């Protein structure tokens, strides 16, 4: 009996591991798609002049969107005007205060 339980437990751990890998891959694809869309919008100027400049810096390899998102990019200040506009426009929809 114990051997069967142990075998099932091992199968379950393996299945959960595979599920985690699949979920991580799906999240990575979504982030990649969202980042590509952001890059396109920013380059078009639809998100403002600062975001266009930032997208050009990303395109040129001076920084990455990941660095911008985590605050380590030397160009992170270029995103502030866009974030401020979005907070002004949509902040009332978020719980708590956005400043």
Can you describe what's shown?
The protein has one domain (2-93). The mean pLDDT is 85. It is mainly alpha-helical and 99 residues long. It has helices at 2-44, 49-59, 65-70, 77-90.
Shape: elongated
How far the N terminus sits from the C terminus, by CA atoms, comes to 60 Å
Largest sheet: none
Structural class: mainly alpha
Number of helices: 4
Helix and strand sequence = HHHH
Flag low-confidence runs: none
Number of strands: 0
Mean pLDDT reading: 85
Topology:
Layout: H1 2-44, H2 49-59, H3 65-70, H4 77-90
Helix pairs in contact: 1-2, 2-4
Looking at this protein, list some descriptive labels.
0% strand, elongated
Short characterization:
The protein has one domain. It is built from 4 helices and no strands.
């Amino acid at each position: 009996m114990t051997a069967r339980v142990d075998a099932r437990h091992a199968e379950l751990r393996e299945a959960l591991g595979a599920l985690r890998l699949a979920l991580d891959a799906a999240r990575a694809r979504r982030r990649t798609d969202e980042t590509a869309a952001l890059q396109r919008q920013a380059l078009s100027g639809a998100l403002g002049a600062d975001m266009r400049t930032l997208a050009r810096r990303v395109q040129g390899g001076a920084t990455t969107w990941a660095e911008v998102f985590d605050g380590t990019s030397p160009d992170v200040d270029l995103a502030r005007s866009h974030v401020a506009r979005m907070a002004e426009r949509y902040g009332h929809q978020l719980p708590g205060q956005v400043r």
